[in-house]
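Quick one:
INPUT:
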């Protein structure tokens, strides 16, 4: 009663109505896109529902498609060695790790997965987080702060950008894969900061080209920054045995300060990791909020990822097949006159088509050809740079690849001839 009386004595505040979500500009943007799609009869290509495990082939609505929208680069997602190992982990540990590993403890599958990851990179230790996205956010925001500088390739993934933002560090970007430009940025900036972190990706997710690791290392040795390499699309893909960018360039992996990767692609699971020195792992396990205050990786996912890494080691021919498929795709696409940008034909091959609407329309038309490939549109890429992005896997057949490329070229030509392109879908 005292509290009520006190509140009554306070001057009246104007009553503020809660903001309605459907009044927000964000919602109006989403809605405008939907309405335009409906108006011109273009279906939303996103969130397509798959009836089965979607690898090189998928089934949607009871119909089979060649699928170029799965990160299951080495086809391990449905491999019995992976699924059996996951089932055994469920039987033994249940599903959840229940709480942070600090509190709920670890399971042997965590320890063994991290040991396998450290072995892949030939480094002391690895630490797993519950997603690749969270790995970048948690690790970057743990290692740098407001007194520090982060310089990154302009095309790095949104999760790394989120980590930098959360860290409060000064952020500068350098032109894509332009080490000379990085040199210029560092020369003008780096002396005033406590720590300097440079972030690149092994294979770039939107364009399918590769970081110039030797040149970056040369700069690292000159400036003494930390070099962090996101291997999301490189593990299982680059290098003779699929160990990634360092193997591709024949570089000692211990030269790189911070290896980052995700378990959702080649490892056909869910989660992410940082690999590097024991001190780095110790710091992250004790100080990274996304590790300390978030649930431990589900044991079933750790077991699945561990089994996929075993396949990576014991069956390097999968990586070889992936490489052959990527090369074939790129070669066919070029012969068909498609614009594959700067892709080198590893895991990711974009086909640039111009504006966002055309990319959406092309993706939808390809469904009629039995091909599933997703558009990447503004704002994920600048307007005018919209594309279909083809993820190649080791299980695609030559016929699937040739058919996908031929259909893409034919349908794109049809759209161009009809001059289908009303500008951006993004209002
Ligand atoms: N880094 C890169 C380069 C990525 O492409 C992605 C996701 N595609 C991530 C990090 C985040 O990984 P995840 O989806 O496993 O959270």
């Amino acid at each position: 009663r005292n509290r009520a009386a006190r509140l009554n004595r306070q001057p009246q505040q104007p009553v503020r109505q809660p903001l309605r979500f459907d009044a927000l500009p964000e919602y109006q943007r989403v809605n405008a896109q939907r309405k335009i799609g409906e108006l011109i009869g273009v279906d939303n290509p996103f969130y397509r529902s798959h009836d089965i495990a979607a690898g090189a082939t998928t089934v949607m609505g009871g119909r089979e498609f060649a699928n170029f929208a799965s990160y299951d680069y080495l086809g391990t997602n449905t491999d019995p060695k992976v699924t059996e190992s996951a089932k055994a982990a469920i039987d033994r540990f249940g599903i959840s790790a229940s709480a942070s590993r600090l509190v709920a403890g670890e399971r042997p599958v965590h320890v063994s997965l991290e040991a396998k990851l450290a072995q892949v990179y030939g480094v002391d230790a690895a630490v797993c987080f519950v997603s690749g996205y969270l790995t970048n956010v948690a690790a970057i925001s743990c290692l740098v702060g407001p007194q520090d500088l982060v310089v990154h390739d302009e095309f790095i993934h949104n999760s790394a950008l989120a980590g930098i933002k959360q860290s409060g560090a000064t952020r500068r970007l350098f032109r894509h894969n332009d080490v000379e430009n990085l040199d210029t940025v560092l020369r003008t900036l780096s002396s005033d900061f406590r720590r300097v972190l440079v972030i690149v990706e092994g294979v770039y997710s939107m364009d399918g080209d590769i970081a110039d690791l030797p040149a970056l290392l040369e700069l690292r040795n000159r400036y003494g920054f930390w070099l962090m390499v996101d291997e999301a699309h490189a593990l299982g893909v680059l290098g003779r045995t699929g160990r990634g960018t360092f193997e591709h360039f024949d570089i000692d992996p211990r030269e790189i300060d911070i290896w980052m990767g995700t378990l959702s692609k080649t490892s056909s699971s869910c989660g992410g990791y940082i690999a590097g020195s024991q001190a780095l792992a110790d710091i992250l396990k004790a100080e990274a909020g996304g590790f300390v205050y978030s649930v431990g990786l589900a044991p079933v996912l750790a077991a699945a990822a561990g089994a996929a890494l075993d396949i990576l080691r014991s069956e390097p021919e999968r990586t070889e097949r992936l490489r052959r498929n990527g090369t074939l795709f790129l070669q066919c696409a070029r012969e068909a006159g498609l614009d594959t940008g700067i892709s080198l034909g590893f895991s990711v091959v974009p086909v640039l088509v111009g504006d966002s609407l055309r990319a959406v329309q092309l993706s939808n038309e390809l469904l009629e050809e039995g091909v599933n490939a997703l558009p990447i549109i503004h704002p994920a890429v600048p307007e005018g740079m919209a594309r279909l992005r083809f993820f190649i896997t080791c299980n695609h057949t030559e016929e699937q690849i040739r058919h996908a490329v031929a259909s893409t070229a034919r349908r794109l030509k049809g759209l161009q001839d009809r001059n289908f392109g009303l500008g951006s879908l993004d209002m």
